[in-house]
Write a structure and sequence with these properties.
Length: 410
């Protein structure tokens, strides 16, 4: 069963929480981060994207960048200030976006359970990204960006969490993007009770988002243990920051594709070749609602494609829409053998809407756009349970968890 423990959280003063909190480091580039942090010296982006306060064009993996992150973190701890809770707590974290609410628990997850597969993954990680996160975490001696977990629903956990949200919150603010963030500190007794419920009700966690954070946390624990002659496995470095949400509350958005060329084919030739394996019809609706279909945009027109073959026979991975698109369209027709490395394809998060796909194709920079159905939480869990790996850029979760509200020092 999964451990999810109370810890000494590092939090800003309540009246400063809105200023400190920031979008995750990996959803913005340097220029976007600099613009978001402009005029706000308390923004956590000064810590998570330290290059915004350095010479433009600096190598993001230079030693000085990590040193700058530490300087910014220490400064923020002093000036916000960020204070370490004297006692160990779990925290309730609620997000509201466009009227939809999801409520999770912030706790300390076990690095050894990640290694043992009790915390399940569905994506491959890249070594360079793991290296970056591990260096950042080790330099700060703090996990500042939470991993995003889900778990199969538990009525007992739901009931306890709901009862805690009736108390006065510690933080409650609306971020510039319109998303409301509310946080409660759970008292010691209830934290123990809630932690015990996780250990009895939740056999495994599933990483929804934050695979590199989780992998970096496991590497951090592995790096710290040999340096401690009195290592017991209970030290703070053996655990990392995560927020766990019940599966029923999650909403996965599509992760769409745009491709730069039709690999030498005319539009008519491409549609004709596509029709060999797919039933093609015109449509006025750009959104792909149902698994087992995708929609594509060419020269101002949307069309729907439904496989003529039995996708269920392709297995748990092959039957994903993004999988059979890759196998039957992107690789053989458009010469995109490896979407991880190809420069001819880009991925557009569903939060940007299908109008972004139209804009990109209409600009002439891309030849065709694919509007994909969203992967379901059940599919994500089934793939993780099978020990399989999803194709790259398969899931897009909203709303995003914010950095800086609670950090986990070690």
């Amino acid at each position: 069963m999964a451990q999810f423990l109370a810890f000494h959280g590092l939090l800003p003063e309540p009246e400063k929480a809105a200023l400190v909190s920031a979008v995750p480091y990996d959803v913005v580039n340097t220029e976007e981060a600099a613009e978001l942090a402009k005029g706000n010296p308390l923004s956590f982006l000064h810590v998570s994207r330290p290059e915004i306060d350095m010479t433009p064009g600096i190598d993001l993996h230079d030693d000085s960048v990590y040193a700058q992150a530490k300087t910014a973190f220490d400064k923020l701890c002093a000036e916000a200030p960020l204070k370490l809770d004297e006692k160990e707590h779990l925290y309730i974290y609620q997000l509201e976006m466009n009227g939809r609410v999801q409520t999770g628990v912030i706790g300390a997850a076990s690095a050894s359970e990640y290694q043992a597969g009790i915390i399940k993954k569905h994506e491959k990680t890249r070594a360079d990204k793991e290296d970056d996160r591990t260096r950042h975490v080790m330099t700060l001696r703090s996990h500042t960006g939470p991993a995003f977990f889900t778990y199969r629903d538990s009525n007992k956990i739901d009931a306890l969490v709901e009862s805690e949200t009736k108390n006065a919150p510690l933080f409650n603010f609306v971020a510039p993007d319109g998303i409301r963030h509310t946080l409660w500190r759970v008292d010691e007794a209830k934290s123990c009770e809630l932690s015990e419920l996780f250990s009895t009700e939740v056999p495994v966690f599933y990483i929804a988002d934050g695979h590199h954070r989780s992998a970096a946390a496991a590497r951090t624990a592995k790096e710290c243990a040999p340096k401690n002659p009195a290592h017991t496995g209970k030290e703070d470095y053996n655990f990392f920051l995560a927020v766990a949400f019940p599966a029923k509350q999650l909403a996965i958005m599509p992760y769409n594709r745009v491709v730069k060329s039709l690999n030498g084919m005319s539009e008519e030739e491409f549609v004709s070749k596509l029709s060999e394996k797919f039933e093609i019809t015109s449509t006025d609706d750009a959104y792909a609602y149902a698994p087992g279909e995708f929609k594509f945009y060419l020269s101002g027109v949307w069309k729907k494609a439904v496989p003529k073959f039995d996708i269920a026979a392709l297995g748990v991975i092959g039957s994903l829409d993004v999988s059979y698109l890759q196998e039957f369209v992107l690789a053989p027709m458009l010469n995109i053998a490896d979407p991880r490395t190809s420069k001819d394809i880009d991925f557009i998060g569903g939060i940007r809407g299908t109008q972004e796909l139209e804009k990109l194709v209409n600009s002439g920079k891309y030849a065709v756009a694919f509007s994909m159905p969203a992967v379901t939480v059940d599919q994500l869990m089934a793939i993780a349970d099978a020990g399989e790996i999803m194709p790259p850029k398969s899931t897009w979760f909203e709303p995003k968890l914010r950095d800086g509200l609670v950090s986990h020092n070690f």
